[in-house]
Every structure is written in structure tokens, then in C-alpha cells.
Design goal:
The chain is an alpha+beta fold. It has 22 helices and 14 strands. The strands form 3 sheets. The protein has a 5-stranded mixed beta sheet. It has a 5-stranded antiparallel beta sheet with strand order 11-8-7-6-13, with no helix packed on it. Strands 10-9-12-14 form a 4-stranded antiparallel beta sheet, with no helix packed on it. The radius of gyration is 31 Å and the shape is elongated.
Length: about 675
């Protein structure tokens, strides 16, 4: 039955005009949120890398990205923009704002096409506009908003191509362009494209089955779509082939992560927090975790609304078959959105289980599917059919869920915009302070050395030494005693050093930089503190020679089962004992030290257990032949008498709580503990 267009057109026009105004308001609000305080915070390391890479010529930019962990397209875009707008913090971040606002508009378009509802489309745009995750990365000079937009654009183009009939060529071309652009923006775009491929495969199989039951000519139509999809996939591969060797090389040689098992529960928790309360930098994790069950309930309600409602039309011309078709369509769209949500998550987590380099931001490209699911479910509940009571309950539920989502967004954005406890690393403030304090005969030492892009962005004129000298993080390039002489030579003739520590747990987990400087200088009081950064200051002696090997005050040897050897120890300082170790072999167990403090009569005074070289440097990271030291607090009670004490040391792991055997010169077991002392403690 044909609709009376002359009767409906004015109503449709008024509705469309009202929705257009609301959509414009949402887009304006999205833009305002994303440019608000855009340059208020310092660039952090990753953003400073963007400034450096995009500032190179085309060949240098391409070479850097081939040796880094992201492909080059985002940097090409920023480089072109920088040529026009400069390299201020605001300018560097503005491309992310543009991509994010375009994502809001595309969320409307995609939801409108998928769910055939202006209300659902408007809600999707609103949720995307207010999403803490999307606002956060819209204010970061990184590629994640560009990746999210291109991934959505590829999905929308694929949807249009699959349903456009003979006029599909342009949409297939757009799909290929967007997919290739997404892959050249971030390697993990492949997982979203895999989700799209699964959707196409299922649609192809279902289409062929249905065609066999109806007309034979439809088999040809469905087969033609399948062939076009295969050709499009091949085109994507062909366009990506020039960069494929670089990607495979980086996957093989990348050492910017610690080896070990992925903590799946922790990873899933961080993904859930990112999708709901925003990046971990926007809400304290315990608070965000308490909200997760409510977000889960909202998602279940949205899915039940979509599948159960199906947008059936009500009226004198309604048919049960029409309503059933609507329910089936919504069920299919729900499965499509779930596929686009879950496949990237599962794929990236599966990869991280083998190569444990994971961050929840890698999954931002899947977040639009989550937001569209929520929006579609809320819109479905708004139109829930039946008695007036059910209709009112559906509207009330939608209002409650939407209010909850917007309230959480408001709380996260309030933290982000107004609470410095959620700020990025304060490189701008730290460099300004050092510039105001540094003397002509002083220099800066950066630990980690790969933090130089952030330092050079704000203070290219101030002398700095990288320790270790890295362009890209390498967790195997850990400082040791053999780095001391080079540091001493670099500081020759200097009278002071400012030590800047960032990500030191990766390259200096033991604290060698401060250990060296304590031996050639005197640390000065430092009243200023900077978020996510540590700043310390030493005045140096005339002699800056640093020995290449440990020189303990007391040489005391013990061989713990040919795993590690005790070298010696220093007299306690401020009730902290320094002990020196030598790794004898590569260790696969996470060993611990058991320390027992005893008085002269052999009575136990206290105990301490922990990793032998600090929490951030488990024995699995130790490199054979490179000595390390550990500092252990001596558990002496405040009321204990001054006098001589002794320490008993054992080494154990969870699989062998009894501890490793100490081997004598004949390689026979000689107990499990070694006694150190006497140690003079308790003097005021």
C-alpha cells in the first residue's frame, strides 16, 4: 500500500527540521567540549613524539614510523596541518578535535542507516559527543580519533555498498579507501576490518540460502556482491603491501613492552572503564569499577529493547509479518554491532596474550558499536508498544539510563577539566622551573632517555644527557654499573645535575642514576613536585669518576643454587640495607628475598620480604653477568635498644617457599640462609 505523500510531507518536514536542529546543537556541543581548555595541559611524551615526527621531512617521517610502532598516515596529516597552523599545543591537538566531531556526525548517519530511527541516531550522536573516552582523545595529539572515524567510515561505506544494488561502485571504492587509510593510521584497524569481513561472510551465506528458496536470479545478485567484496578485500591488501614488511618487522623486533603473561582480568577491566567512564586518567579506578555493573545492566537492557521491540509499526495497516520482519532486522543489526564490538576486543586481547603490549586506547575503534547499541536500545524502549503502563515504563527507563550515562560523563569530564590530580605529565611546568633554576655549569640528565622529544619540545636550549641513549623505549636497555663511567665522563667539569625521571621503572628500575650521583655529589633539597615526573638536584664534587663495578663496603659471597650470587653489602643508612647481587644465569622464576633481623642473642626482631632489586625489576628481567643492588628496609622497632644486629637472607619463589640451597665450593648444599653483620642500629 502506498503512503499519501501529500498528507505526510509537512509532518515529515517539521520532524526532520526539528531533528536537524537538535543534531546541529549536539555537534556544536561536541566541538565546544573538545576545544575547551585544549592547550591547558602539557604535551606528554606520545604527543611530543607527534610534534617531532610530524616536523620532519617526508622521508624522515616515513623512516621514523617504519621503525616505530605506528604507520605514517596520521603524521602526514599533522605535518600538513602544522605547515599551516604551526606547532603549538593547541595546533597539534586540533586535528584530533576535527576527527572526533566528524565521528559524532557519522555516528548519527550510521545509526540512522542501521536502525532506521531518527531518535536512535540522535541518541547515538549525543552519547558520542559526551563520551569521556572520545573527549579525552580528541584533546590528545595522537591518531586514535582519526582511526575511529576511518573505521566507522569504512563500516558505513560497506553497509551502503551491500545494499545499494547497481549503484554500489562508489561505496565499494569509499570502503577500500577508508579501510586502507585506517590500516595506514594504526595496525589494529585490521581487527575491525576482520569484524566487517565476518559480517559480510555471514550476510553472503544467509543471502545465498534465502535466494535458493525464492528466485534463482537472486543467487547471481548475491554472488556478485560476494565477488565484489572479495575484490575489495584484495584491493585493500594490494594497497597495504608496500607497508606490510615494516609492520611485520616491528612485530618481530619491538621491545617496548615487558615479556610475560597478559593479565586478562585487568585488561578487560581497563577496556570496560575506558568505554564507560573514559580513559583511566578521568576517574579513579575504584570509583569506575563500582559503576561497571550498572553499565552492564544498561547494555543488557539496550539489547533486550532492540531485539524484543524491532520497531514494529502500529496502525490499521499493520501486519504481524511486518512486525516480525522488524524484530528480525533489529536482531540482525544487534548481532552486527556486537560483532563490531567484540571481534576487535577479542582479537587484540588474543594478540596481547602472545605479545603482552596492551593499552585500552587501542580498542577505541570499537567504541562506536557500543554507543550505537546503547542508543538503539534506549530508542526502542521509548517506542515500546502495548498498554499505556508499559509505554510509560519504557520512557521512564530510557530517561533513567540516559541520565545515568550523562551523569557519569559529566563526572569524568569535570575531573578531566578541573582536577589536576587527573592531569598529564607536567613537562611544560617542569622545564620552566628548571630553566629558572639551572646554573651555567649544570646540566640535565633524562631518565628515561627516550623522553627527549618532550624535553626538546619545551626546552631545546637546555643541555641534556639521555640515560640510556634511546630513541624508542627498549625495556631490555636497563641501566647498570657499566653505565657509570660514561655518566661520570659526561659530567666532568659540571658542578651540578638536574635529574628528570619518567618511566624510570622501565630503564632504571633499580635506581642506578641516583646511586651514581650520590657517589659523586650531594643531593639538594627539592621543594617543587610535578605530576607524573620526578625532579632531583645534585651539586657535584670535582672528581666525577664512577667505578664500572660494584664496590661493597663488606664483601660477603654466597651462591644461591647457581641462580644468583651474593656479592656483598653496605653499612645501613637510615635503617636501609644495600645488598649487591650477581645474576649467574637467565632466571625464569620471580624470586624473592626473605630478610630476618636478629639481635646479638639470635632473637628475631623483625622480617621483610620483597624482590631482591625492587618491585619494578623482577629477577626474570635480570641480565646474566650484570650486577645489581637492592635496598631493604630494616624492620627495627622504634623501642628497640641500640646495638649490633644481624641479618639472615634467603632467596625463594612461590614454587619453592623453602628457598634456594646455598652451594659451597664443592657444590654441596650448605643451608638456605646467609648471615650478614654485625650492623650497628638504633643510635640516635
Amino acid at each position: 500500500m502506498r503512503l499519501d505523500a501529500s498528507r505526510l510531507t509537512p509532518d515529515v518536514a517539521r520532524c526532520a527540521l526539528r531533528v536537524s536542529r537538535l543534531l546541529l546543537l549536539v555537534l556544536v556541543a561536541a566541538f565546544a567540549l573538545r576545544v575547551h581548555r585544549l592547550a591547558a595541559q602539557s604535551l606528554w611524551y606520545d604527543e611530543a613524539v607527534t610534534a617531532y615526527v610530524a616536523g620532519q621531512d617526508l622521508a624522515g617521517l616515513t623512516r621514523w614510523t617504519a621503525e616505530d610502532i605506528q604507520p605514517p598516515l596520521y603524521y602526514y596529516v599533522v605535518a600538513g596541518w602544522m605547515a599551516v597552523a604551526g606547532r603549538s599545543e593547541w595546533a597539534l591537538r586540533f586535528p584530533s578535535v576535527v576527527w572526533s566531531v566528524l565521528t559524532v556526525a557519522l555516528a548519527w548517519t550510521l545509526a540512522r542507516r542501521l536502525l532506521a530511527s531518527r531518535t536512535a541516531a540522535l541518541l547515538a550522536a549525543l552519547l558520542c559527543a559526551c563520551s569521556p573516552l572520545h573527549v579525552y582523545y580528541a584533546q590528545e595529539a595522537r591518531m586514535y580519533t582519526q582511526l575511529t572515524f576511518l573505521g566507522m567510515l569504512a563500516g558505513y561505506a560497506l553497509l551502503r555498498a551491500w545494499t545499494a544494488g547497481r549503484r554500489a561502485r562508489g561505496w565499494w571504492a569509499l570502503f577500500v579507501i577508508a579501510a586502507v587509510a585506517a590500516l595506514y593510521t594504526h595496525y589494529f584497524a585490521a581487527f575491525l576490518l576482520l569484524a566487517y569481513g565476518l559480517c559480510v561472510l555471514v550476510a553472503l551465506i544467509v543471502g545465498l540460502v534465502q535466494a535458493r528458496r525464492t528466485a534463482q536470479w537472486r543467487i547471481v545478485t548475491v554472488a556478485r556482491r560476494g565477488v565484489t567484496a572479495i575484490l575489495s578485500a584484495l584491493a585493500i591488501i594490494v594497497f597495504y603491501l608496500p607497508w606490510l614488511p615494516a609492520m611485520l618487522t616491528r612485530y618481530r623486533v619491538d621491545r617496548s613492552y615487558w615479556h610475560g603473561a597478559l593479565k586478562l582480568g585487568e585488561a578487560l577491566r581497563h577496556v570496560a572503564i575506558s568505554f564507560t567512564a573514559g580513559a583511566p586518567e578521568m576517574m579513579l579506578e575504584p570509583n569506575a569499577v563500582r559503576l561497571l555493573p550498572w553499565f552492564g545492566l544498561a547494555l543488557v537492557a539496550a539489547l533486550s529493547g532492540l531485539i524484543g521491540q524491532g520497531w514494529p509499526r502500529r496502525g490499521p495497516d499493520d501486519r504481524r509479518g511486518h512486525a516480525d520482519a522488524g524484530r528480525k532486522h533489529m536482531a540482525v543489526m544487534s548481532l552486527v554491532l556486537l560483532t563490531c564490538l567484540l571481534v576487535p576486543i577479542l582479537g587484540i586481547l588474543a594478540l596481547a596474550s602472545r605479545t603482552p603490549k596492551f593499552n585500552a586506547r587501542y580498542l577505541m575503534l570499537a567504541s562506536p558499536a557500543y554507543l550505537v547499541l546503547l542508543a538503539g536500545g534506549m530508542a526502542a524502549w521509548l517506542r515500546w508498544p502495548g498498554r499505556r503502563l508499559w509505554h510509560l515504563m519504557g520512557r521512564a527507563g530510557t530517561v533513567v539510563v540516559l541520565g545515568f550515562l550523562l551523569w557519569v560523563s559529566f563526572a569524568s569530564l569535570r575531573n578531566w577539566f578541573g582536577d589536576w590530580a587527573f592531569a598529564k605529565a607536567q613537562w611544560r611546568d617542569l622545564t620552566a622551573f628548571v630553566r629558572s633554576q639551572i646554573a651555567a655549569d649544570e646540566m640535565v640528565v633524562l631518565v628515561s632517555g627516550h623522553a627527549w622529544p618532550a624535553w626538546d619540545y619545551y626546552a631545546p636550549d637546555l643541555p641534556r644527557l639521555r640515560l640510556p641513549e634511546l630513541d624508542i623505549l627498549d625495556v631490555e636497555a636497563v641501566l647498570g654499573f657499566d653505565d657509570g663511567p660514561a655518566l661520570g665522563r659526561a659530567l666532568a667539569g659540571r658542578r651540578g645535575v638536574w635529574l628528570v625521571r619518567w618511566q624510570a621503572e622501565a630503564v632504571d628500575p633499580v635506581g642506578f642514576a641516583a646511586y651514581f650521583l650520590d657517589r659523586i655529589g650531594v643531593e639538594q633539597p627539592q621543594p617543587r613536585h610535578f605530576w607524573h615526573l620526578e625532579l632531583r638536584h645534585w651539586r657535584l664534587n670535582e672528581d666525577t669518576t664512577i667505578a664500572p663495578a660494584p664496590a661493597p663496603m663488606h664483601a660477603d659471597g654466597a651462591n644461591y643454587a647457581h641462580k644468583l650470587a651474593l656479592i656483598g653489602w653496605d653499612d645501613p643508612r637510615d635503617r636501609v640495607l644495600t645488598v649487591y647481587w650477581q645474576p649467574l644465569n637467565r632466571m625464569t622464576a620471580d624470586y624473592r628475598v626473605s630478610l630476618i633481623l636478629m639481635d646479638e642473642a639470635g632473637r628475631e626482631v623483625g622480617r621483610w620480604d620483597g624482590r631482591p632489586a625492587g618491585y619494578d625489576y623482577p629477577t626474570t628481567r635480570w641480565q646474566p653477568g650484570r650486577p645489581v643492588f637492592g635496598r631493604y628496609p630494616l624492620p627495627l622497632p622504634e623501642a628497640a635498644a641500640a646495638g649490633n644486629y644481624y641479618v639472615s637472607l634467603a632467596v625463594y619463589d612461590d614454587a619453592d617457599p623453602a628457598g634456594l640451597d646455598i652451594r659451597d665450593v664443592a657444590d654441596n648444599p650448605a643451608g638456605k640462609r646467609v648471615r650478614l653483620g654485625p650492623l650497628r642500629l638504633g643510635d640516635r
